[in-house]
Amino acid sequence: MKRVAIVIVLMVAINTSYSEVKAQDADSVLYRIEMKNGNIFIGVILLENDEIIRLKTSELGEIELQKVHIVRRTKIDGDRLRNGEYWSENSHATRYLFGTNGIGLKKGRGYYQNTWVLFNNVNYGITDNFSLGGGLIPVFLFGAPGSPVWIIPKVSTSFSEDLHFAIGGLFGGVLGEDDNFGLGLAYGVLSYGNPDHNLTFGLGFGYADGEWSDIPLITLSAMTRIKEKFYLISENYFISSSGSSVGLLSMALRWSLESFAVDFGLVRPTDVGGGFIGAPWLGVSIPFGN
To answer: Of the residues 135, 162, 223, 255, which has the maximum number of CB atoms within 10 A of its CB?
Structure first.
């Protein structure tokens, strides 16, 4: 019996040592661990068993976490660490304030966007290269006879890690008024950059009353991430006609968490003079999906 007991003890010791060595061999793998109390820890897993995880962090050193208190464990890319802070993936990388860029929504991901309460949009990735959305302004709630509605298809592709292209449109009309349907805009956009920092140039042509416009709408937009949860955004439109040109300029700040984002800024037409600085813009978006 003594020999059997000694063998069992040795086997347990060897297995434990092996588990620790195996975990330490993977010391280049970073994990983000979310706890039930809201705390988040980032580090390398040194040891794991049925009850605890021993995590090596840069700020707290080695800590032990009880598995029963862990909500989620996610393997993360070390490139997303900035001075010890984890910069989560940009869940709103495919759009600016309203318009889109050349980056496509991933399959199974989407977002709901609301601007000034009345403007509602939903977009969803059908595949990695095709998304479909729709929108509504529910003015029928105020007794109006019709409500504007639209659909937003988009096909996107990437030529490289930094060069993205998309074509799509916004097509719709006024629900409840049969003679006021068939409005829209078809566009193409070319973006340079990544989900955190990008610049987009685009051309669009409007459609109304069965005819396409022969004057293009030009867009120039940009986004840059300045902090873990903050982005600067500018979305601008220009059109020329009869020798003159007008535009719509915007500058905004996006506060983006993993569960929602808020855009607040100013929008200003170029043909407005005087002391007018700009009209306020306020939008909220909520991502969903995998």
So the answer is: 223
Query: What is the C-alpha separation between 258 and 137, in angstroms, rounded?
Result: 26
User: How many Cα atoms sit within 13 Å of 135 on the Cβ side?
Assistant: 21
Q: What is the DSSP string of 205-238?
A: EEEETTEE-SSPEEEEEEEEEEETTEEEEEEEEE
- Non-local CB neighbours of 141 within 8 Å, separated by 6+ positions: none
Question: What is the 3-class SS of 241-268, one letter each residue?
Answer: ECCEEEEEEEEEEEEECCCCEEEEEEEE
Q: How far is CA 12 from CA 6, 8, 18, 50, in A?
A: 10, 6, 10, 15
The DSSP output letter for 100 is B
Write out the chain's pLDDT in tens, 290 residues.
444 333 333 333 324 333 333 344 445 688 989 999 988 888 899 999 999 999 998 888 899 999 999 998 888 877 777 776 778 889 999 999 999 999 999 999 999 999 998 999 999 999 999 999 999 999 888 878 888 999 999 999 999 999 999 999 999 988 877 666 688 999 999 999 999 999 999 999 999 888 899 999 999 999 999 998 999 999 999 998 777 889 999 999 999 988 899 999 999 999 887 788 999 999 999 999 87
Length of the chain equals 290
Measured torsion, CA atoms of residues 38, 41, 47, 52, in degrees rounded to the nearest 10: -10
pTM for the complete prediction?
Answer: 0.78
